[in-house]
Amino acid sequence: MSERRQPFVAGNWKCHTTLAEATRLADDIKRRIGRLRTVEMGVIPPFPFIERVASRLAGEAIQVGAQDIYAKGSGAYTGAVSGAMLKSVGADFVLVGHSERRLIFGDNDAVVSAKLQAALNSGLQVILCIGERLEERDAGEAASACQTQLAAALQDIPKQALQNVTIAYEPVWAIGTGRVASPSQAQEIHFVIRTWITGHYDSDVAASTRIQYGGSVKPDNISGLILQPDVDGALVGGASLDADSFSAIVTASIDSSAEADSARNRF
Ligand code: PGA
98 catalytic, yes or no? Predict the structure, then answer.
C-alpha cells in the first residue's frame, strides 16, 4: 500500500493587503478551514503583517510564512530582514527562490542557495521554488532547467535537513497568467524532481519530500493537479487573497488526495 504524503497548501499574498485587510483575511481563513487536520496549510503575508497574522492564527493548524529572507543575519544591511527576526515575529517557514525574487530582484542560484542555508540555520522551514521560463519550455529544457536550479540550491544541504524543505514547482509562464500547467505537464516535472532527489539523496528522502505545484491554481483546477501521484499540494498566489477560493483549494486538496489514495489502494 502506498503511503500518501499529507498535502501542503500555502497562500502567497505577495505585495498585497494592508494591515486591516491582512487581519481580516487571516480571520476569514481561520473561520473557514482553521480546524482541518488532514492537510497542512500556510499563509504568507508581507513582512509587516507577519506578527499580526501569526497572533490571529495562534493555536490553529495554519502556519505562517515569510516571502523572503536575507542570508547574512543581523548587521549593517539596511532594509534586510534576517531569519532570527522572522522567527521572533512568529514565522514558521519562508519562501526561497520564488521566480519574482529571481527575475525582479536578481536572486541568482548562489543567492537562493545562501538564503536556503540561512533559513534552515535559523530554524525555519523552507518552500524552495523552482521552475522553467517559457523559452526554456519551448526549447525542450523544462526538466533540465529545474534540475539545474535544484542542484544549485541544494548543493550543501545534507539529507537530514531536507525534511525541512518543501519544493514548489512553479513554471514561470503559469504564474499570474491564468495559464495553469496541465495535470500531466505538472506530473512530468514533479516526477523529474522526485527522481532527482532519489539520485542525490535516496528513495526514502524522495518519498517523504513534498512537491507543491504553483502557477494559476484556482478552485476549479486544483483537483486534477492534486490527483497526480507526485503533486503534494499547491503554492497559490492570486486565489489565496480570497478566503473562499483559498479555502476551496485547501478542501479540494484533501478530497482529491483521499480519492487518489483510495484509487491506489484498490489495486
Ligand atoms: P499565482 O501565483 O497563483 O497568482 O499564479 C503563484 C505563485 O507565485 O506562487
Answer: yes
pLDDT in tens, the chain (267 residues): 345 699 999 999 999 999 999 999 999 999 999 999 999 999 999 999 999 999 999 999 999 999 999 999 999 999 999 999 999 999 999 999 999 999 999 999 999 999 999 999 999 999 999 999 999 999 999 999 999 999 999 999 999 999 999 999 999 999 999 999 999 999 999 999 999 999 999 999 999 999 999 999 999 999 999 999 999 999 999 999 999 999 999 999 998 777 777 766 665
CATH of region 8-240: 3.20.20.70
Tell me the three cell numbers of residue 16.
Answer: 498585497
Q: Name the residue of 170, 177, 220 whose CB sits within 8 Å of the most ligand 1 atoms, as the mutation to test its pocket.
A: 170
Distance 19 CA to ligand 1 centre (A): 21
Query: Which cell numbers in the block locate residue 186?
Result: 505538472
Domain boundaries, the chain: 8-240
